[in-house]
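REQUEST FORM: STRUCTURE PREDICTION
Request ID: SP-0412
Submitted by: Lab K.M.
Chain count: 1
Length (residues): 565
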Amino acid sequence: AATGQALRLPTWVPGSYLIREFAKHFVTVRAECNGVPVAVTKTRKDTWQAAPCAGPLTVTALVNAHDLSVRTAYLDAQRGYFNGASMFLCPVGREAAPCMVDIVPTTGMSGWQVATTLPRDGAPAGGFGAYRAADYDELIDHPVETGVLATASFCAGGVPHDIAIAGRQRADLPRLARDLARVCQWQIDFFGGVPFARYLFQIAAVNEGYGGLEHRASTSLICRRDELPREGDERINDDYLKLLGLASHEYFHAWNVKRIKPAAFVPYDLTQENYTRQLWAFEGITSYYDDLALLRCGLIDAPRYLEQLARAITAMLRGPGRLQQSVGDSSFDAWIKYYRTDEDTPNAVVSYYVKGSLVACALDLELRRDGRSTLDALMRALWERHGKPGIGVPEDGILALATDLAGRDLSKFFAHYVNGTEEIPLATLLDEVGVEMTLRASAGAGDRGGKPAAGAVDRCTLGIRAGADMRLAVVLRDGPAMRAGLSAGDVLVAIDGMKASPEALAAILTRGNAGTALRIHAFRRNELIEVDATLDAAPLDTCVLALAAMPTAAALARRKAWLGG
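STATUS: Completed
RESULT:
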């Protein structure tokens, strides 16, 4: 650039709706031209300005890579990973220019492989060397995993799919490939085609961790190594089911959000927030289909699917925030609330993933009521009208399309459950498809719902969530603890003169009755306080779903159309 080249770094990465400030990881940025240093001045938090020069400009950045997530970069002696949005400076004004990436090994990387969907430009398959991208947008949409990787491959929709696992593990890779092939093939058939030439599942196996981020032809996943399938074990236990659901979720995003996008994302502006009220659809609908795909491709049966659905309902019911914030508002405020949790988050925020998936389920069942349409048809129409041609979905586009497919006005449904905080009538909608919904009290901290209680359920509640040290992480809105004056951060030390512990509290909640008065001592900022609390009846916030034994013929037909079989 005649006036000196400006270089800008994204402040967020598509798929994770928070200003991440990737520039904070940049230690130094320097430049030279024909071996002569060129001055570089930082002009904004995310922008560097090079002085004018005559000839090619070489810019070198030193980046601290120690974030074990799917969003930024990580490098140690065993593994390297980077998401391009956190690493690649963009020459302002040259966003459409083609890019070449040379990934160079350093000392100690003998035997390392490279797993990425960046098109090769001379690099050997799975090796270091030259890769390319058509423009900056493509450059940052193909993350790179390096290390001594465990790999497997399969074909779905006539397209090669690869798996690359970093980290110590003893996974049954052939089993994982077979199961993912079924999931991928079902989704390809669902949309009627493949929007990529190949696909890659990058998996980091760790001791503790969970996460995923979608890209146009790959996904980066983090899972506990225990969630990978084990040789000789053909079961799909809860751990493996969690991994399959995560992989299914991110794969579905290859259509829904990577190509079917809100109009606010076409194009992305990575310098600032991109506001939309539609994340409930792009994340929530995807969350609805992630486990449903496992059912429809035959990996799990209907009772197992209903167990997963019941756990989602349980998670929603246990958050008072659902009565304060709509999923539309949650989508819009994702930039300041969803990813920035605090002690009041459960009281004030609803998950556009969890409740969004249940709104999607309700919309599906609503569309099926008279047999005119389904959410499947809605998604295929979105793909044909918006995904394939690359036209963003307007803010009212899903309502308009759903109304068109249903042949009736669905504005009240959207007003109540998308843009309002009314309770979703799931019990009624599920009953109409031959599924019985029951609610009970929790059976303790480990009770996620989905199954009948294995032991005694809580008869009352104090309205808190506490750690093993009895420090209050959350004090639920309008509950006994909040009414008594307890706050998040308080540490309970005694209840009715007896030492406070998780076991002692569980016994009180199981054996006590609503109206029971308790004298509680706690430390707040190392000062002892004393309060009186009166227990409430335990809420019926734990869901169990079951196939109705004797549904009507109409309900049975709708259930078969929805769940199959």
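NOTES: The chain has a mean pLDDT of 97.
Reviewed by: T.R.
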